[in-house]
User: Fold this.
Amino acid sequence: MRPRVEEVRIQGLGVIDEAVLELSPGFNVVTGETGAGKTMVVTGLGLLFGGRADPSRIRPGADRASVEGTLVIEPGGRVAQQVEDIGGEAEDGTLIISRTVSAEGRSRAWLGGRTVPVGTLTYLADDLVAVHGQMDQQRLLQPARQRAALDRYAGEELVKPLRAYTQAYKRHKQIAAQLEELTTRARERAQEADMLRFGLEEIEKVDPKPGEDADLRGEEERLSHADALRSAATTAHTALLGDPMEAAGSPHDVISLLGEARAAVEAVRDFDAQLASVADRLAEAGYLISDVATDLAAYAESIEADPVRLAAVQERRSVLSGLIRKYGEDSAGVLAWAQRAAARLAELEGDDERIDQLTGEYDELTDKLTDLAAELTRVRQAAAERFGQAVTEELTALAMPHARVVVQLTRSAEFGPEGVDEVELRMAAHPAAPPLPLNKGASGGELSRVMLAIEVVFAGADPVPTFVFDEVDAGVGGKAAVEIGRRLARLARTAQVIVVTHLPQVAAFADQHLVVEKASDGSVVRSGVTALDHEGRVRELSRMLAGLEDSELGRAHAEELLGLAAADR
Assistant:
């Protein structure tokens, strides 16, 4: 399902007080007497899709102008996703867009129920509508749009080389960025490598072991207090077992005192079970204290003052502390830093080899891109020639027999995402005139016809679903007017077309004919925009042909035009 504009409500714009246009999916034409506000329909659509807000267009006496459009879009499609991304809603494939312009020039926009910058409407319009009017920014005047349109016109022949080029271009850019990084930061990387080497050499020279700093700290404490530790152990041992130099049996040590206590309780333990339990515990205490005393004796013998070893431990600790200050919280942290540094150093030392490898790949891709870009240029040039001829033929039928449209391809000095071709549509107004950019080579009315010819040739290749034309029939009549109507109808087979016209030959080809009628005071109200049935179309076409709605000759000519259009469809 192609998106389309379903309804447009305009208020306070130009001579329009209030008007509602209900549009069909195919060819819609808007007619009416001069000054009835037909052009305001195009202006309103332009505002709806982000066009420039001109406060002078606001209806006299109104404080603002507003335009609201109801669009049918594809649920889950590109447009629906864009609306969802900005927080708007398009319920059941229906999207509401609105725009207001105050008399002071302030402009506000809403999309899917959410306030958005006006630029968001302009961005969205690229996928929804192309407005062709004398005062409008033409979508196909943008160089990027012209190249994209030409590529779609070129068709399948361009798809494969363009896909290959795009893939190669992305890789080419990645490699260029990597080489830029490697070559421009060579000094920084060399400095980093030197720092890493110094640190690794320093650590390798010291050769720390996991947990060594904690072990040395404990050993230093013992060696620094060896005399005190040995004295304490000896004193404790004497207190527990007594001094062997004293006379035996002098009960000054813990073991002797415990023995006396145990002997006293053992003598009477059989008379009371509770006391027997105490006797057992005294025995256990004696065994435990004996073991402790033995350990104290062994510890006292092991403790020796060793100034040489103490100096060595302190020196080792000092060296380790220096490493820890630089590289980690402890010796394990220092070793972890060394592991990471070795990996990074290996990476840095491989840069030269990496640069050589990337440079080789870069050169290969440059050659490949050159060949692919040349292929793209060849295909585009062939498509450009076909396209220019086709548009020129269309212009001949549209009363511009001397005009010629060409597609100029200019080669860029650098590779771009789509190749090296810069595409520009140009027009020569007559054989002796040089081809100029479209907006310089054609007047306002001519430009609309040129754009119609371009859109007809692009029909099916251009994804824009709605086209709006104003002044497409300026300065045209007779057979050329019929050809304009025929081509608009042809374009409407693949897209929605909305045309403001004063030519009955154009209006006769429409699927939906809307007429804008002025009220007695010159304003246009809602009831002033009417969708015509067959009889209404005959009357309106007769008015446009003869200036009289009930002219027999005019009615007959109107019926003839409608019959011609119906037969052509």
